[in-house]
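Appendix B, record 7
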Amino acid sequence: MPKKPNSNAFTSLTAWRRSLASRAVQRGWRWVQETGAVSAERPGRLRFRRIGPGTRLAFPQGTVFGEPWIELGDHCVIGEQVTLTAGMMPGLDLGPDKVLTLGDGVVLGRGSHVIADTTVTIGPDTYCGPYVYITSTNHSYDDPKTPVGKQWPRAEPVEIGPGCWLGTGAVILPGARLGRNVVVAAGSVVRGTVPDHAVVAGAPARIVRSWEGERGWQPPLRTPAPVPIPEGVTPEQLLALGELRPDA
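Structure tokens (predicted):
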């Protein structure tokens, strides 16, 4: 009688083949991500007004058009599927001036959208979590007889100051002006003016904490400030510190 196949050996061989295939796919995808990323050295089809050194748009990119009116500063990090648009549609002549500006060191998290039908400026070192939506245009609904999507939209400039943090899913509406080091809580909807050093939350967003000079943060912070890593500490020293016993 013929021998029955060894089910354990067959299972091991199948698992080995799948592991090889998985590694090959992962290596291939990493190659695609690296090759498809956009930078000043490798802009691909995208011809921005300026793209600074060290700036990188991860692959795959979201919708991008109006690049001649988009200026990206130095060392910006733009995540996967981020939309950057200048103008209401591709192919428009928007004049001699830039429309969308990202300062140096701006970070846009995965899936974020920056829609600039008129001027949008994001100050240096502003960080955005995933799926942040910044727009200079909003639908109008003046005419109750016409579908909202067919009515001419309203557009107002947006200005986000330096050093801000926009949490996941935050929405910045037309006409918003955020000062320096503003914190926008996740899911908040911001309109109007927000002063320097304020924390806003809610829909619509309201100031829930602000810096008041000698009094500091009001209401006071509930947790102590984190202690930064001292300058000059090497990664090897940090690893060695992590291996120490708590009572050492």
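Remarks on this record: The longest helix spans residues 7-36. The CA atoms of residues 69 and 95 lie 9 Å apart.
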